What does this fold into?
Amino acid sequence: PGQFECALYGADAGAVAHGSLSTQLGDAAAHAFQIVFSMHNVTFAVAIGLGSAAGVRAGNAVGEGHPVAAVRRTLIAVGLAAGALGLGAVALALAAPAIVPLVPATAEV
It folds into this structure.
């Protein structure tokens, strides 16, 4: 497999390892891990989407023969992704009191 496939397998193995370790710490830890992992996936999806869009925009610029525009478009996407993730983190931190009751969990979680 190529580097990309190896990176994907490595990331997948890391997620499995974290999940496996959390189950060894008891039900409360496993449940809490799943809640945090779900919130992480929601915010991370935004970064993945922006990265995908940046790849298309940069590819278009290169295809049009404007490599300098590709760099500019990529930097704009990096700024947007960082801003979106920062806003997502702030939103989750501020909305935590409203989000926690929506998650079905036992009191120990």
